[in-house]
Design brief:
The protein is an alpha/beta fold. The protein has one domain (2-96): Hypothetical Protein Ychn, Chain: A. Helix content is 32%, strand content 19%. The chain is built from four helices and five strands. A five-stranded parallel β-sheet has the order 4-3-2-1-5. The chain starts with a strand and ends with a strand. The model has no long low-confidence stretch (mean pLDDT 97).
């Protein structure tokens, strides 16, 4: 299952709730303000690194650019809209709103 997170972890507990339900191998995709979670060196970096042990983590590149985020936690993969669509086509989606 693909888990999409669109809320900033600094303003919402969506990310923290999501990780409690992740199964090994489930990809996580951060979009919109959710991309703040993957910025390198913030208080969520260790959590992201832990998730990366068993799950692929993605961030939507246009949303990173729109928010001026240039450095992400090591291991997080950026995807464009085509990559986003590919992930949605491959997995059932659970949107954490």
């Amino acid at each position: 299952m693909l888990h999409t997170i669109n809320k900033s972890p600094f303003e919402n507990i969506t990310f923290e709730t999501c990780i409690r339900f992740l199964l090994p191998g489930d990809p996580v995709l951060f979009i919109e303000d959710g991309v703040y979670a993957v910025q390198a060196g913030n208080r969520f970096s260790a959590i992201i690194a832990n998730v990366l042990i068993t799950n692929p983590v993605f961030a939507l590149q246009p949303d990173l650019v729109a928010r001026g985020l240039t450095v992400v936690t090591e291991g997080v993969q950026s995807v464009d809209y085509e990559g986003f669509v590919g992930l949605v086509e491959e997995h059932q989606v659970n949107s954490w709103l």
